[in-house]
Design goal:
- The protein is an all-alpha fold.
- Helix content is about 45%, strand content about 0%.
- It is built from four helices and no strands.
- Helix 2 crosses helix 3.
């Protein structure tokens, strides 16, 4: 498929409106990979949303020291 100026303009408009690459591909009559490739060549990126909550990073649990007498087996 050759990319004409009106196809690229439509691609820009639909991408900035928030449509997915698959939706744009169906509209243009080409493959999703062709749309993704053109988006890459045009330098268009989807803005990422900032995380809504900050994750709490917990430290790993502390291992309790075990006494060696509790683990030893009685010798017969």
């Amino acid at each position: 498929m050759g990319w004409h100026a009106k196809d690229i303009a439509l691609l820009n408009r639909l991408w900035s409106a928030g449509q997915s690459a698959a939706q744009i591909a169906r509209r243009l009559g080409c493959s999703r990979n062709a749309v993704c490739g053109m988006l890459t060549r045009l330098g268009l990126k989807r803005g990422h949303k900032p995380p809504t909550a900050t994750p709490k990073i917990r430290p790993p649990p502390k291992l309790r020291p075990t006494s060696s007498a509790a683990c030893a087996r009685p010798v017969a």
